[in-house]
């Protein structure tokens, strides 16, 4: 895996934005894979800035998000739908028809997972996948486990995560207990992967990943199998 070391979070965000911008200038109809979480917020801010200042065009871009809670309404401010419209889609000229986020309000979540894989294939696959990494090495909702899933699937949240999320919801019964997540296979099919990792909290997972040992107990380690995966980090490794 190629490593690009940056001096701080802002430099990581700008470096990632450079990669996205270079792709969109060359291929205005590119397919982007997107992540939520705190790490890519700086990247999304940089892309909004470049859209406003330099006319970076999203009108023909297609996007696929990694994951979404289930069940959750897209209007809920804790949903990943809400996050994406707040931090990126609401501020660039993206065509809402080309935005794909797993449906947290699907009546039949298993059918929604299959439909998501079909939509990914119909779009011709992901050109550039943006990823964050969990402190425990998770990627999307692929948590350390005895086995991992290849395709988009329903993932059970751990009791710890459910408890930690409870403070964001009005009633305990509203806290999602599941998510819909792309699998490691869906992610590894992307033609290029940018993994953003910032802060000391990520050091253990990043160092274990870079050791090159592949294990389902560290889902990020599977990125070592990808021929064009780039880690952009502010960690001194
Ligand atoms: C988000 C996602 C998660 C995060 C990871 C890191 O769509 O799939 O795997 O990338 O939990 O989160 P932050 O960036 O908040 O440290």
What is the gist of this entry?
With 237 residues, the protein is an alpha/beta fold. The protein contains seven helices and ten strands. It is globular, with a radius of gyration of 17 Å.
> How big is the Rg?
17 Å
CATH architecture: 3-Layer(aba) Sandwich
N/C terminus separation:
13 Å
How much helix, percentage-wise, in residues?
A: 25-40%
Q: Total number of β-strand segments?
A: 10
Write down the secondary-structure element order. EHEHEEHEHEEHEHEHE
Main-sheet strand order equals 1-10-9-6-2-3-5
Give the biggest sheet. 7 strands, parallel
Number of helical segments with 4 or more residues:
7
Would you tell me which CATH topology applies? Rossmann fold
Overall geometry: globular
Chemical compounds bound to the protein:
fructose -6-phosphate
CATH class: Alpha Beta
What proportion of the residues form beta strands (DSSP E)? 15-25%
Mean pLDDT: 96
Pairing-aware structural class of the strands and helices?
alpha/beta
Number of domains: 1
Poorly predicted ranges: none
What tags apply to this protein structure?
single chain; 237 residues; alpha/beta; Rossmann fold; 7-stranded parallel β-sheet; 3-stranded antiparallel β-sheet; 7 helices; globular; binds fructose -6-phosphate
């Amino acid at each position: 895996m190629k490593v690009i070391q940056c001096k701080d979070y802002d430099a990581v965000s700008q470096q990632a934005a450079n990669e996205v911008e270079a792709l969109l200038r060359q291929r205005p109809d590119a397919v982007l894979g997107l992540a939520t979480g705190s790490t890519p917020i700086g990247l999304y801010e940089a892309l909004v800035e470049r859209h406003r200042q330099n006319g970076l065009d999203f009108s023909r871009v297609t996007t696929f998000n990694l994951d979404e809670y289930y069940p959750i309404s897209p209007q809920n401010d804790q949903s990943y739908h809400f996050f994406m419209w707040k931090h990126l889609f609401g501020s660039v000229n993206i065509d809402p028809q080309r935005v794909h986020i797993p449906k947290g309000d699907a009546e039949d979540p298993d059918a929604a997972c299959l439909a998501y894989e079909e939509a990914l294939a119909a779009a011709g696959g992901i050109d550039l996948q943006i990823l964050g990494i969990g402190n425990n090495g998770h990627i999307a909702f692929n948590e350390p486990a005895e086995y991992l899933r290849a395709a988009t699937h329903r993932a059970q949240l751990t009791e710890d995560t459910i408890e930690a999320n409870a403070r964001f919801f009005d009633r305990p019964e509203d806290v999602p207990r599941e998510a819909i997540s792309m699998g490691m296979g869906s992610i590894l099919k992307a033609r290029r992967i940018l993994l953003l990792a910032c802060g000391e909290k990520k050091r253990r997972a990043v160092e274990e990943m870079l050791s090159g040992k592949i294990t389902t107990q560290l889902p990020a380690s599977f990125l070592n199998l990808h021929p064009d995966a780039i880690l952009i980090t502010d960690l001194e490794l």
